[in-house]
User: Which sequence fits this backbone?
């Protein structure tokens, strides 16, 4: 047990029912004796078989019955504050679906954390099998408040107020507080019975309980909720979440490929070069930084790679996700990532949730297309710092250099003084050669741009 405890997964320490640990590079789930009765019911009732049949949960291979299980490895672990609106929405609907199915087998989710869901491409999947426990007739849903904080609150704020409020999930690891949500939502939501019930009323009750914390609490053992009433509650949550939409899904960057400054033949030649370069890379995973709506992520996917498709533009990532969901793509994961402020490590001891680049590691292939001129000119990052950065996050790099004469760079420079003396093709190659070997380079036909394939030294 001591050797297991020394290899615990950093985020797996809150649940007394069990934990995740690493052994010889493989992930295992340990089931505590205190959870055995619930686990037996999960397996013997047919619920686990049903959830697997519907492909709603990650499969676990039995190593030691009722004690140790080996979950299928995920291609990549992402977090709710990196998901698009529709991704978070689908994660919420998955959680509700599992709760509704579980009730039919006399089980219930004891927690409804968004971190219990992961994505394989565009498909959400539930990962925490120890979150299910035996249902006791008449008991309310213990995870109801957590569900509202992790899912309903951010979705309402993104839909009805401002989609960038999703970032509140980063500073609120336990979900957005209901009183904060109530204060931020438009006052017209008080006229919506479902929102009034799930958000405003619960926020009021929460404040009332805090105000009475010094007074003795009455026994709430008589508080009952029938299974039928609980099912109705879940249906109401499901209906309101399904009805939510973003007010606007148009963005300058989401339309970027329609305003590119080279013709279709040049664009096709660029695609051809990227296919060629990716065919020479070894990594099975590509991290596409500045992916926009994912055109080149799909080319990487066609080359047999699993792709983490990243952009800072919320709506570009949203449009990317919706298209991948429509195509039922399981090999491209769109995430909201700002390279100048990527997801940091957060939570207990700053280890509970790893930073984005801790999770990607430094052995992957990175795509950086039409990106570095933004980082240099818009964000004032020197070319030598860019070279150092990319050397720290990848083994192989497919990168595009866009010179100052390019119309897109000229547009960036039109509103500011050109103080970027280090931004030239020669200095770019010199600085990156300190960390990388340039394997191949080609000028994109009928353009001023160059594409490089580099390998870290």
Assistant:
């Amino acid at each position: 047990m001591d050797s297991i405890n020394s290899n615990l997964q950093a985020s797996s320490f809150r649940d007394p029912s069990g934990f995740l640990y690493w052994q010889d590079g493989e992930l295992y789930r340990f089931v505590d004796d205190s959870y055995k009765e619930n686990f037996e019911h999960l397996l013997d009732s047919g619920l686990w078989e049903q959830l697997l049949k519907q492909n709603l949960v990650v499969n676990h291979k039995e190593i030691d019955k009722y004690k140790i299980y080996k979950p299928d490895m995920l291609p990549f672990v992402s977090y709710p504050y990196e998901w698009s609106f529709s991704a978070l929405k689908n994660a919420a609907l998955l959680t509700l679906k599992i709760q509704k199915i579980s009730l039919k087998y006399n089980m219930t989710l004891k927690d409804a954390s968004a971190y219990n869901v992961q994505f394989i491409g565009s498909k959400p999947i539930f990962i925490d099998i120890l979150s299910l426990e035996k249902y006791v007739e008449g008991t309310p849903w213990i995870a109801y408040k957590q569900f509202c904080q992790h899912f309903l609150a951010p979705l309402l704020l993104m839909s009805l107020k401002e989609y960038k409020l999703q970032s509140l999930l980063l500073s609120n690891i336990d979900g957005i507080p209901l009183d904060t949500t109530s204060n931020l939502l438009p006052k017209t939501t008080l006229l919506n019975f479902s929102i009034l019930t799930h958000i405003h009323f619960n926020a009021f009750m929460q404040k009332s309980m805090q105000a009475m914390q010094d007074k003795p609490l009455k026994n709430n053992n008589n508080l009952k909720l029938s299974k039928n009433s609980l099912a109705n509650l879940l249906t109401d949550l499901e209906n309101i979440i399904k009805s939510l939409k973003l007010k606007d899904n148009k963005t300058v960057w989401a339309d970027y490929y329609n305003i590119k400054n080279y013709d279709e033949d040049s664009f096709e030649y660029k695609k051809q070069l990227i296919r060629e370069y990716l065919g020479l890379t070894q990594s099975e995973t590509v991290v596409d930084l500045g992916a926009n709506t994912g055109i080149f992520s799909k080319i990487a996917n066609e080359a047999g790679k699993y792709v983490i498709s990243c952009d800072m533009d919320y709506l570009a990532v949203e449009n990317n996700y919706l298209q991948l969901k429509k195509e039922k793509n399981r090999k491209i994961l769109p995430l909201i990532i700002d390279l100048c402020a990527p997801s940091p490590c957060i939570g207990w001891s700053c280890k509970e949730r790893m930073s984005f680049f801790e999770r990607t590691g430094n052995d992957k292939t990175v795509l950086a297309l039409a990106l570095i001129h933004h980082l240099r000119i818009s964000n004032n990052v020197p070319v030598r710092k860019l070279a150092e950065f990319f050397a720290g996050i990848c083994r192989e790099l497919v990168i595009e250099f866009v010179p100052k004469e390019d119309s897109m760079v000229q547009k960036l420079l039109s509103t500011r003084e050109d103080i970027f003396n280090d931004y030239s093709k020669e200095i770019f190659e010199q600085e990156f050669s300190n960390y990388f070997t340039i394997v191949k380079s080609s000028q994109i036909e009928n353009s001023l741009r160059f594409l490089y394939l580099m390998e870290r030294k």
Summary: The first strand starts at residue 18 and ends at 23. The domain at 2-71 is CATH 3.30.200 (Phosphorylase Kinase; domain 1).
